[in-house]
Specification:
Helix content: 40-55%
Number of helices: 3
Number of strands: 0
Distance between the termini: 15 Å
Structural class: mainly alpha
Order of helices and strands: HHH
Largest sheet: none
Radius of gyration: 14 Å
Oligomer: single chain
């Protein structure tokens, strides 16, 4: 099977890729929502997208929804999670 090319949007977020985002488009389970509530502020949206197998855009939209419902709080101290650079992935064979 041939590998699917990884593409990014203008913000550096990975677009949908079936190899990484197997759960994209599926309903959210209680375990996934609880995992997100517990870990989102610690690991950030990019790592969360790999853990839950959904796109970063989907993870960020769910985080916004959970914050509006009061289930996910913003951290007192803002953390900026380092993203994987596009060039790092393209250099690998």
């Amino acid at each position: 099977m041939e590998a699917v090319k990884i593409e990014y949007d203008r913000f550096g977020r990975m677009n949908y890729n079936p190899e990484f985002h197997a759960n994209n488009g599926k309903l959210w389970g209680k375990e996934d929502v609880q995992y997100m509530i517990d870990w989102y502020n610690i690991i950030g949206p990019e790592e969360m997208s790999y853990a839950l197998e959904r796109t970063i855009k989907t993870i960020q939209a769910k985080a916004t929804e959970l914050r509006r419902k009061g289930l996910l709080t913003k951290p007192a101290k803002q953390m900026h999670h380092k993203r994987i650079k596009k060039g790092c992935l393209s250099n690998q064979n």
